[in-house]
Input
Amino acid sequence: MKTETAYHNWQLFLAGNQVISPAVVANEISNDFTRQAASGRMPDLRAIDLLCEMAVLEGNFQLRKAAVAALYKNIIEPLCDDFTSAGVRMCNLALLRMIGFLRLQPEGQGLHNLLNELHYPVQDLLLQRFEKIKQPSVLSASLKKNIKKILILSRVTVGADVAIVSIMVHRLLRSFPRADIIVFGPPHLPEIFFGMDRVHWEKIHYQRDGGLIGRLTSYTYLYQLLQNEWHGLHDGQTLLFDPDSRLSQLGLLPLIDDRYYCYFPSRLDQQIDDSRLSQLTNRWLNHILAEEVNLLPQISIRSAHLADIKSFFAQFPETCKKIVINFGVGNDARKRLADPFEEKLLAGLLQQENAIVVLDSGSHPDERERARGLMEIMASQSFPTAAVSEKTLTTKKIPFQHGLVCIQGGIGMLAALIDQADIFLGYDSCCQHLATARGTRSIICFAGAPNDRFFDRWRPLDKSGSTTTIRIHDSSNLAEGELTQLSEKIRGLIFTIHSGIEL
Output
């Protein structure tokens, strides 16, 4: 849809003469923007202004929701997932347009005032700054010697924090033995960095499913938190590591003097294009720290979670194959395989008399409902089933030795569950990174990758080939027979693991 036509329809809507659903308009505008960007043309950035107007319209929740989805899911995320310098440039232009729009709104006055105070009265200056910080510079020996505190931004999602931030944390602990490390982000952080000396957590919530205002204005709160951390320290005693975080709007918003700002440009073109994000993280750290170290992702789980999971599994025979499954897709339906894949897979595994299958129900309401439905289908096929929660994990007796147990709990419990499993099965999600960080054998159905670079970047960096990745090139066209065949193939792979398969 041309931007002029979209504006015309929008004005008709505001005047009360609705001729087409604004939600449909939002989707078509964003799709047209993305198509133009993909073709190498410069899209009409007024489309961003229009979507922003829709995203803040009072009294119409559904329209605001559709507009925010159009901005992020249809424009920002696809540009990020492209993993090219061209995608980064276009993403920057779109985000800066959104920031510029919000600076003119009453709700964005705090953001506007802070950027002015930091000498960024216009968006072009923010873009110029980004062009400088994306070029990594080596930290001098004298600077490294004086550092007392290191601040790290979370990538917000669990999988990225395992694949990228965990490497940063463990590398920086080694490189700065006298510095405290504080990671800023969601509540899952203390569950994957539990009990680590000199590593602390500061909670900040990023509204991944929230509105435009909430996503952008959280920057001012983060800036104040960071100010509090380096208050009282001398100049040059603090470093900030930004792993291309949503908290900084992918590095566009300043948080500290750029001399002490270490920005990891994870989405830029790479000389070795099939590198994984964990490898790129190590490579970038080696450059700025002048080191030659390569670490695998690793997490630290609460001992109480591990004890509870061990107690849970102790009620089953030692000969049981402990199979843990999570069908979560991180709110990205493209990663899920169509029905009846999950049903066929579970039924095939439960036919094995020595299998105890544990299905994690996830944290999203839709995922929990789907897990409940799968458990009911298995029960209707006469397979033994039971449901437990994290609270009843060690007290509820499972009334069978082989069957399906559906578990609901937090990320710490899930990490311990995967750690104690014989094998993990799932889609491209945070769980594949939890599994590889603990060295658990896993089989991953990787569907929905928009391009080869996305697949290469997000493949986990595993230990000695412990992960088998099955890439699904076009999941939307798989027939029922092919889905059944795939489920049978996975059942066989539980006992014969190969390095990789493509469909």
Notes: The two ends are 35 Å apart (CA to CA). Residues 61-81 form the longest helix (21 residues). Confidence is low (pLDDT under 50) at residues 497-503.
